[in-house]
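Side project, low priority. Logging it here so it doesn't get lost.
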Amino acid sequence: MVSQVTWAMIVAAMVSSGTTSWSVTGIALQSGNNVLTVTARDAANNAGTDTLTVNYTPVVPDTQAPTAPSGLTATALTSTQINLELDRSDR
């Protein structure tokens, strides 16, 4: 029975204990392929090791402002309300 699992990357190492499932937070993935080495140990300190490759593609934030609409008209309906219309004939 597995008693401990170790997760390691070139930049960090973490330990998680348990018998059937494990999770680790705080692994800082780099853009592209990340190779994690996972070592499981039993109570007698027998170890089994495998590697896992995780490909991480960060989401690039949208920093482009939208283009201003063309063909926008405004009509005053009352002193506190206006009607905006967009000419969509060019789309």
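Brief comment: The radius of gyration is 28 Å.
Revisit when time allows.
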